[in-house]
Amino acid sequence: MAALPFDIRDGFIWMDGRLQHWRDAKVHYLTHGLHYGSCVFEGQRVYNGKVFALEEHTARLFRSAELLDMRVPFTQAEINNACRQVVDAAGLKDAYMRPAVWRGSNVMGVSAQASDIRVAVAVWPWPSYFSPEERAKGIRLTLAKWKRPSPETIPCEAKAAGLYMICTLSKHEAERDGYSDAMMLDYRGYVAEATGANIFFVKNDKIYTPTPDCFLNGITRQTVIRLARERQLEVIEKHIKPEELDGFEQCFLTGSAAEVTPVSEIGDWKFAVGDITKTLMEDYAMHVRGMDT
User: Fold this and answer.
1) How many C-beta atoms surround the C-beta of residue 116 within 10 A?
2) How distant, in Å, are the alpha carbons of 53, 108, 110, 214, 269 from that of 243?
3) Catalytic one among 26, 159, 171, 203?
4) Alpha carbon 153 to chain centroid, angstroms
């Protein structure tokens, strides 16, 4: 059965300082964020009724807005409270949350310094980015033709809506070819990430992950690195050439949506869903639900 379109669901969305009925939370067609990509957002998970790493996500939202020259008309504490309000109003214990900041419809043109800044937070049920069956055996990735751009051409530290255009194109093409996702290289030809998640590899009980110098250093990525080091596993951040994938034994993705997801293949490269991957999946699941304290 097809999922219900997002604009005709029921519930509440926090928008510009107050809760609104879900179907009433609308923006005008001539909104700068739609026409010029002046929008930043966060993707964060709710576990047991609490938003995981809420303060970290909100801090990054504000940093992203700053990088796009937008001043959020609320404090970080107010946005944190808005996120909690939405969770309470929805009555959800496990869910996915999307806060966003964008330029409104006051000005239509490249220069929009006089535009108002809009803010909203929504939450909805979203059990897993990939199906349980895919995650159990490891998802299949292809290689994307699009590359992550140079930091001299984009604000790569911002989680900005416009920067996901090539991710959408890459994932669409991967799905048409029977894959779950695609691995993207960066502008230099190094391994970067998947379309919406960071990537890790395992070889000889050591974990390798690309240096995030032209793509997001994900909050889930940072969490998993910390969990691995707590287990005395060595984590090496480095530039990884595609040909180095020949020697890697395991591979997995990390992200708020993807959580920790094993990868069984990337194009012609094959990987096992090994013990380190499984351990970090379990450690992360316990950590986000507060069962490791």
Assistant:
1) 14
2) 35, 46, 42, 20, 10
3) 159
4) 21
45: its two tokens: 């998970």
Are 111 and 173 part of one and the same domain? no
Q: Identify whether residues 65 and 168 lie together within a single domain.
A: no
C-alpha to C-alpha distances, 208 to 165, 244, 266, 275, nearest whole angstrom: 27, 11, 16, 15
d(CA 42, CA 57): 7
pLDDT at 129: 76
**CA of 106: how far to CAs of 69, 102, 111, 113, 148, in Å?**
16, 12, 11, 10, 32
**Would you say residue 59 lies in a domain?**
yes
Model confidence at 57: pLDDT above 60: yes
Q: How far is CA 179 from CA 130, 153, 174, 235, 292, in A?
A: 11, 29, 5, 28, 34
Q: Which residues pair with 14 in a beta bridge?
A: 19, 121
Encoded amino acid at 90, one letter: A
SS3 287: helix
This model's pTM is above 0.90: yes
Domain end residue (candidates: 107, 124, 141): 124
Q: Tell me, what amino acid is at 223?
A: T
Domain of 172, in residue numbers: 132-288
Cβ-defined contacts of 228-233 (< 8 Å, 24+): 228/276, 228/280, 231/279, 231/283, 233/205, 233/206, 233/207, 233/276
Contact 167, 196 (CB under 8 A): yes
pLDDT at 1 over 50: no
> Residues 144, 264: one domain?
yes
Confidence of residue 26 (pLDDT cuts 50, 70, 90): very high
Neighbours of 285 (CB within 10 A): 14
CATH number at residue 69: 3.30.470.10
Kindly state the average pLDDT of the residues 107-131: 92
User: Does the annotation count 159 as an active-site position?
Assistant: yes
